[in-house]
Amino acid sequence: MVRVAGMTAWPFHAMLLGAAIALLMCVAVSAQPQPMCDTPRALLDWLAREFQEYPMWEGTFPGGKLIITRNDKGGWSEVRVQGQRACITLAGPANRFDKGT
Fold first, then answer.
1. Residue 58 zone, left/alpha/beta (φ > 0; ψ -120 to 50; rest)
2. Whole-number Å distance between alpha carbons of 35 and 85
3. Which pLDDT belongs to residue 28?
């Protein structure tokens, strides 16, 4: 059993486990190849090339705009644009159109 001055074993083990999980999460996030933010044109080009997603809706808000992209298989992304910076804020594998019914 490992003992650190003034600590019982279980908090120390919990701390080690937490550090290991945090490290694994950092490695998993850094392994993702997709750009989360880029210029609007570069990000939309990347979505088209990698996922065959194209803009289907665009709305403006003070200081920027929101773009929803979609592909024929149902995949979609929400892109928030402010100036020359665009970021993917949400994405999913399926969608459906609701006509207000």
1. beta
2. 12
3. 44
